[in-house]
Design goal:
alpha/beta, Rossmann fold, five-stranded parallel β-sheet, 9 helices, about 15% strand
């Protein structure tokens, strides 16, 4: 089974692209969805113990947590030390299920693939990209997003140009859905030939 790491900076269309792989019948592990589930379940007690006051109603309040970790890398590392091992366990279980089902290809949708060294754990990388103006317009439509917050997020991410240079495949979502879907199909076909 080929393991494809799918990544891209904020606002590049990675979630939409992951859905295109899913629509094509490829199993997809969504790291963000795994984190969201952990914030409502297995990670709540440990996160609340490390960051008192961020859990409400039995779940982690993402905004309260964001306020605690956004500007302090050492605090963010403490959070990652709690969450990353749990996500890795979820990912391993997903891959085991996909392999047992005979899937020739599985996608790991990981926003910070390069930043966390996750590219060493996959067979091949595809980066989702879009022109900077498109990216900015998409992100600024998100509730509570500001240019300053976007700049802070981008400062912690590997630059788009470097991600594109390090990936085997580049999927440009700036040219529309049909073009992106065609590129996803081409990636699947190329990996099928490899297998």
């Amino acid at each position: 089974m080929v393991i494809l790491g799918l990544t891209g900076s904020i606002g590049m269309g990675k979630s939409t692209t992951a859905a295109m792989f899913r629509d094509a019948g490829v199993p997809v592990f969504d790291a963000d969805a795994a984190v969201h589930a952990l914030y409502r379940g297995a990670a709540v007690a440990a996160i609340e113990a490390a960051f008192p006051g961020v859990a409400t109603g039995g779940a982690v309040d993402r905004e309260l947590l964001r306020q605690r970790v956004l500007d302090d890398p050492s605090v963010l590392r403490r959070l990652e030390a709690i969450v990353h091992p749990l996500v890795r366990a979820e990912r391993a279980a997903f891959l085991a299920r996909a392999e047992a089902a005979g899937a020739p290809l599985a996608v790991l949708d990981i926003p910070l693939l390069f930043e966390t060294g996750g590219d060493a754990e996959v067979d091949v990388v595809a980066v989702v990209t879009a022109p900077e103006a498109v990216q900015k317009a998409r992100v600024l439509l998100r509730p509570g997003m500001t240019e300053a917050r976007l700049s802070a997020i981008l400062a912690r991410q590997v630059p788009d140009a470097e991600k594109r240079a390090r990936a085997r495949f580049v999927i440009d979502t700036g040219a529309g859905m049909a073009a992106a879907r065609a590129r996803v199909a081409a990636v699947i076909a190329a990996l099928a030939k490899d297998g």
